[in-house]
Amino acid sequence: MQGLPGTEQGPVRALIGRRPDCSIDRSSGGDGNGMTYLGEFRVNGRALLASTVGHGAGLAVSAYIIGSFAPHLLKEFGWSKADFALLSTATLLTLLCLPLIGRATDLFGVRRVASLGVIVLPLTYLALSVFNGELKVFIGLTMLQVIFGTTTTSTVYSRLVADRFREARGMALAIMASGPAITGAVGAMLLNDYIDEQGWRAGYRAIAVFTAVFGLLALAMIPADARPAAVAVRRRRAARDYPVILRSPAFWVICGGMFLCNIPQTLNGPQLKLMLLDNGADSAAAAMMVSLFATGVIIGRFACGLALDRFPAHVVAAVSMGLPSIGLFLIASAFDAQWVLVGAVLLMGLSQGAEGDIAGYLVVRHFGVEIYSSVLGLCIAALGLATAVGAVLLSRFLDWTGGYVVFLHLTAGSVLLGGLMFLLLGRAGIAGRPVVAPEPAAD
């Protein structure tokens, strides 16, 4: 197999033969080569812990906590559910931020890039704790969170894992990606009770302290060698890499499947509790289901990570990403019994968990490590576009119909189609080795 030119580590080697769909290994050396499954965890435990803690205290945790604030904000300031749904359009900024942040991570390393978000993100939560109730101000602060907070997402932190693990890469990515879900599972109900007792402003201050303390802890734990693998990486040119990336069929299949599966993403954040209340659940039951959703994310993440280390990735992706279609159809149905809602939310959570593993795993498999964050940034930007499109559609349907049913039926179909798209990654010509533009010889 041909290696990626311009690296100091030589050719890219094939992944172990027991996984028939795996075609490449990481190309930048690291600590994982030649180790056993558990041995990789022993040697690279510090990097894995740093990435998990940093991700768990980063921007992604907002998806699990904002639902606790939503009813209080709507009640105090008189916002409509349709107005609040537009909040998710702030994710459009990821279309610009994530590709740039991914590229910067490949060039300058995880610690330098993540530091920016670790500093700014707590400040935005403090600002939210004192804002005056103007919806435009709230959306503006959320946009600020997205711009700087994306430096604390998986696009940045997962590079620590992709660069060090091979045998246990799926499980390691699962552990890293579970950071926000662990925070959500433990914190959602605690935060809900705290807000009920102390008020939503105190809730935002508590989140500010949490993100600051654990964000700084993560930076301190990043290994000293967590930097771009070689000087040659810094010489990479966007004019050479990006045209080749965009000509790759695998890139478009990954992005297309992720896009279709993430149109209903807006339901997994601030709208989840509101949707459950709309389906007849009381506040306590809805809060329990939000916590169950986060628990489902954790279970789905580990199950998917283990499956990726054992079975063809395109099959695992198709099954895992298609699960929410069942949950969405159930919520849209006339069956509003609590056990039906619990099952539907759990299915949505399981798939949400798998998503974090699948994106990183497929990218490193098809594109290697040198440009890992550059490609992952583009893929997750596609997810941001899908979330924004879904937010606009949901807002319109709430205005037109006053409920969620039409949107649920529409997105159930898109999720099913997106899940099936991943099967294309197993076809000849797409599942082959990655092609990366050559770099010029050193002067």
From TrEMBL:
One of its GO terms (molecular function) is transmembrane transporter activity. Keywords: Membrane, Transmembrane, Transmembrane helix. The chain crosses the membrane at residues 47-70, 82-101, 113-131, 137-158, 170-191, 203-224, 244-265, 285-308, 315-335, 341-363, 375-398, 404-425. PROSITE patterns: MFS. This is MFS transporter. It comes from the Bacteria. Residues 46-429 form the Major facilitator superfamily (MFS) profile domain. InterPro entries: MFS, MFS_dom, MFS_trans_sf, Proton-linked_MCT.
